[in-house]
Specification:
19% of the residues lie in helices and 31% in strands. The protein is of the alpha+beta class. The longest helix has 9 residues.
């Protein structure tokens, strides 16, 4: 049995969180936020290994988003580039 390749993305937040459907769009899993919402509504997305049905779920640093063949690791903003001193 051949396994489907897994694509791993790393996403660094600019703010405290990003809405799930926007994350899917920004990493290139979907072409639009609307497609991201449809994937979530279809039950195809998991956050931290649990099914996620909220299209606008707030995804924060340290969380992992998975869907068919794709894993997205979400990271905190780099303190050196976020304007903090």
């Amino acid at each position: 049995m051949k396994r489907k390749p897994i694509h791993v993305h790393h996403f660094t937040l600019r703010d405290e969180y990003i809405e799930l459907h926007n994350l899917l769009k920004l990493v290139g899993v979907t072409d639009s936020g609307g497609q991201g919402k449809a994937l979530v509504a279809a039950g195809a997305v998991q956050v931290d290994d649990a099914p996620e049905a909220r299209k606008t779920a707030k995804i924060r640093a340290g969380q992992k988003v998975t869907l068919d063949g794709v894993t997205i690791h979400v990271h905190a903003p780099d303190a050196r580039t976020s304007g903090s001193s």
